[in-house]
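Quick one, tokens below. Sequence please?
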């Protein structure tokens, strides 16, 4: 039961976690624990934190605040914070980039629980008489979440802004009007959430930053360009089978999305997968990448079994991935987006910096490192996502319709990048509908239709295959594609 909230994302995850303190509230009330009194030990004030001078509690509270801010600042400027920010903005992309989302979320819960425990200990000493409602009540439990949502999640200053604005307002109104309007605190927090949802859904901090800040620096890496990876530095092109799929099958209810698919991708090759919409191409990628578990069949990569591995584990074995719809981290810079992918390739931040700079140089985005991903064009987003996949120097990259949504003028640049990456020894498996480009690009095609592999071979063979023409190309395309091959 404790694992189920981990399936939720973003604010839904936080809201689901509110169920636990409410459960504890009803359990303690059912057991008859209406209140618990702390013993009075004024003879040892430092040991029991029971001071005659109430200002001592203010000093303790400020000290805990400094500790919490220091810990939060350390997290924000570390891999931990980068991983959490990536998970919040796009969890599938973070998982595909090698981030173990389950472990990072569990670590975040443990750390936040420790900080909450410190605050709760001081809170109990101040109250002296603890009741289930004062510790696990809805207002007490929801208050930290509301403050963070109001100020802005994902930044040290977001919860600080929320606390500075809302807590004095709510407590002040409660002191003045609490006898006339009981529950005025809840009204203040409710109105605050409504206003922030309508006016600044991401929170006050992010709204102000987007409005006044022109750019944002990346704390972990610099933007100096470096030469592209030379062929001698890349993995040598091999002739063996790198990725092998045997008898892959998967169903969604009564729909057979993949039906006994066999696929062999040679090391150093550029292998294309084509087929009509709904043929199962992206489903095949999701199976290879670990987002979907096949009902039947086996997948091996470089001789190692991939079947049953999660996406982050697949990435760590040397498989990068781009998506049909670009999955970026919009509130992170281009540099930060790519460094999330580089972290899986090394434990050294300096080495990760070199990987990121090399990857951006390879795709032609070396001068856009400080730009926010949310402000990029589709062409730049495609290149950035490709750089993120290339940063940890994988052996295989899965390209899911990388050319989708691009104008004619942008196609050539991305095709040149793909060719260069292939020349450096990286194996590429690409899904694409732009056949004029594909027949000049790939070494071999595999054609899917209704989840089945209907043909495989060289481009000149595939464009003349009657089954492929009928299922996908159509006779109108036959002459045009055949002429392009010739």
């Amino acid at each position: 039961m404790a694992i189920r909230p981990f399936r939720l994302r973003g604010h839904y995850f936080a809201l689901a976690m509110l169920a636990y303190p409410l459960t504890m509230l009803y359990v303690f009330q059912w057991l008859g624990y209406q209140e618990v009194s702390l013993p009075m030990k004024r003879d040892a004030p430092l040991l029991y934190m029971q001071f005659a001078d109430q200002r001592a509690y203010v000093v303790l509270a400020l000290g805990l605040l400094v500790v919490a801010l220091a810990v939060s600042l350390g997290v924000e400027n570390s891999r931990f914070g980068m991983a959490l920010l990536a998970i919040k903005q796009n969890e599938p992309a973070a998982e595909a980039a090698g981030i173990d989302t389950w472990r990072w979320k569990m670590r975040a819960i443990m750390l936040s629980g420790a900080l909450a425990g410190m605050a709760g200990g001081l809170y109990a000493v101040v109250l002296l008489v603890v009741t289930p409602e004062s510790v696990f009540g809805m207002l007490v439990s929801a208050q930290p979440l509301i403050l963070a949502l109001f100020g802005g999640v994902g930044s040290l200053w977001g919860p600080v802004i929320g606390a500075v604005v809302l807590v004095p307002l709510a407590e002040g109104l409660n002191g003045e009007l609490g006898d006339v309007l009981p529950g005025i605190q809840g009204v203040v927090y409710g109105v605050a959430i409504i206003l922030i949802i309508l006016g600044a859904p991401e929170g006050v901090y992010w709204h102000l930053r987007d409005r006044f800040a022109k750019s944002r620096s990346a704390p972990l890496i610099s933007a100096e360009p470096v030469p592209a990876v030379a062929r001698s530095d890349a993995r040598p092109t091999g002739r063996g089978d790198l990725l092998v799929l045997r008898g892959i099958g998967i169903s969604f209810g009564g729909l057979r999305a993949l039906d006994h698919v066999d696929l062999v991708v040679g090391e150093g090759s550029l292998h294309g997968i084509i087929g009509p919409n709904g043929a199962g191409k992206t489903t095949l990628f999701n199976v290879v990448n670990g987002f979907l578990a096949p009902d039947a069949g086996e997948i091996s990569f470089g001789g190692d079994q991939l079947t049953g591995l999660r996406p982050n584990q697949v990435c760590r074995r040397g498989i990068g991935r781009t998506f049909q719809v670009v999955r970026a981290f919009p509130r992170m810079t281009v540099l930060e987006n790519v460094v999330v992918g580089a972290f899986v390739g090394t434990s050294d931040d300096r080495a990760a910096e070199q990987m990121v700079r090399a990857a951006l140089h390879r795709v032609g985005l070396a001068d856009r490192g400080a730009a926010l991903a949310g402000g990029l064009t589709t062409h730049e987003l495609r290149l950035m996502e490709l750089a993120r996949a290339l940063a940890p120097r994988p052996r295989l990259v899965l390209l899911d319709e990388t050319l989708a949504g691009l104008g004619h003028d942008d196609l050539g640049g991305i095709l040149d990048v793909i060719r260069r990456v292939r020349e450096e020894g990286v194996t590429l498996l690409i899904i694409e509908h732009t056949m004029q480009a594909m027949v000049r690009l790939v070494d071999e095609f595999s054609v899917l239709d209704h989840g089945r592999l209907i043909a495989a071979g060289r481009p000149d063979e595939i464009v003349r295959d009657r089954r492929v023409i009928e299922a996908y190309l159509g006779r109108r395309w036959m002459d045009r594609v055949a002429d392009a091959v010739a």
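The radius of gyration is 28 Å. Residues 68 and 342 are 29 Å apart (CA to CA).
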